Amino acid sequence: MRTALRRYALAATAVLALSATGCTIHVEQPRITPRDMQFTGIDGSGLVFTVTFNAYNPNTFELTLRDLDAHLWLQGNDVGSTVNSLGATLPPMREVGVTARVTMPWNGAPAWLLTAAGSPMVEYTLRGEVTVERFISIRTSFEHAGTVPRSFFMQGAVGTVNGLLNSFGLPGVQVQ
Predict the structure, then answer these.
(1) SS3 of 176, please?
(2) Which residue among 34, 50, 158, 167 is least crowded, i.e. fewest CB within 10 A of its CB?
(3) What is the C-alpha to C-alpha distance for residues 18 and 102, in angstroms, rounded to an integer?
(4) Cα–Cα separations (whole angstroms), residue 128 to 24, 33, 83, 159
(5) What pLDDT does residue 96 have?
(6) Which candidate, 140, 129, 150, places its Cα nearest to that of 58?
(7) CA distance 42 to 110
(8) How far is CA 141 from CA 68, 130, 133, 150, 164, in A?
(9) Residue 107, Cβ neighbours under 10 Å: how many?
(10) Closest CA to 42 of 167, 143, 171
(11) Residues 89/62, Cβ–Cβ less than 8 Å
């Protein structure tokens, strides 16, 4: 107990000394650049994608990526998405690859199926923010746009429909 109190007092003294001399703690935002998006499967929540990012930490100390908030837009329509927590450490002055799992929820399925059905190539934009922690929490935003073939989304829908048909006792019926 005394040790913890002593450490707290030393930390408070150090902060006061730094603030009295005009020193400030400066943390530069990392650069987050989405690099690749791959369809990886289906689960009870929706279509699952793996998004790979390049993350560059311009600071002289490690930063921890805590979580990712992302939304997927197809042909200008927000189809929603959820992201599991993102746990990665960015080493100082280096770029590293970071992978996150993104899920397009089933409640957005009508929007993405209609969008995907209307064109052989579908325009997408992935927008979001990553929370970085060191001394404080910092949010840094990112955006990535591109096109993917309609089959990218349709293969997930076909697999799900076939799975539902099998679960209802219709194993011989398959959607192609």
Answers:
(1) coil
(2) 167
(3) 42
(4) 29, 11, 10, 28
(5) 93
(6) 140
(7) 16
(8) 10, 6, 14, 27, 38
(9) 11
(10) 167
(11) yes
Per-residue pLDDT of the chain (176 residues; tens, 9 = 90+): 565 555 554 455 555 554 555 555 677 888 888 888 887 877 778 878 888 889 999 989 898 888 888 888 888 888 888 776 677 889 999 999 998 888 888 777 777 677 777 788 988 888 888 888 777 778 888 888 888 887 776 665 555 555 555 655 555 544 44
Assess contact for 151 and 120: CB atoms under 8 A.
no
What percentage of the chain's residues is helix, strand, coil (to nearest 5)? 25, 45, 25
